[in-house]
Amino acid sequence: MGKPRVTSLENQYTAEHERKEHNRQSHRKRLTRRLTAFFIVAAVVSSVLISSMVTQASVLEDKQTERAQLEQKIVELDKQEENLRNEIVKLNDDEYIAKLARRDYFLSDSGEIIFTIPEDQPAAEKEQNDTAE
Fold first, then answer.
1. Other CB atoms within 10 A of residue 116 CB
2. Which of 87, 99, 111, 116 has its CA 20 to 30 A from that of 127?
3. Under the phi-then-psi rule, with left for phi > 0, alpha for psi from -120 to 50, and beta for the rest, what region is 106?
4. What pLDDT, in 10s, does the model give residues 7-48?
5. 99: alpha, beta or left? (left if phi > 0; alpha if psi -120 to 50)
6. What is the three-class DSSP state of 115?
7. Is 28 helix (H, G, I), strand (E, B) or coil?
């Protein structure tokens, strides 16, 4: 091998061309850096937003579960309130009070004998049926 046979010309056109090529490469390098920075910022923002959405979805699911439980509790309390209102109405009736006194406290009128007969129903169910009436 020997000396290179091609030599560059040292004139204004080649100097201008080399300067333009240098400017274009530096512009490309800055563009690459800006795009890289943009994608990094976009990735960070996206990850924060996705994390926030996952957290909010979890909180929303917890709140919906809590709401369902509270609605069920409201239904139970409404039912209990209705039973208590019925019990109040019944407690204003003297015959019902006498029936309770006979059943629960074995109280009787003079000359009356109370016989208790065992039933098939458990006491809790019977009491619930009485309060529902």
1. 8
2. 111
3. left
4. 777 889 999 999 999 999 999 999 999 999 999 999 999 999
5. alpha
6. coil
7. helix
Q: Which two tokens stand for residue 75?
A: 């239904």
As given in the structure block, the two tokens for residue 133 are: 């009436």
Location of structure tokens 């976009």: 42
Give the whole-angstrom CA distance, residue 130 versus residue 83: 10
Judge whether 114 and 102 are in contact, CB under 8 Å: yes
**Helix ranges (DSSP H) in the chain:** 12-91, 94-105, 123-132
Structure token pair of residue 46: 């996206």
Q: How far is Cα of residue 133 from the mean position of the Cα atoms in its chain?
A: 40
Which residue, chain included where needed, has tokens 């019925």?
86
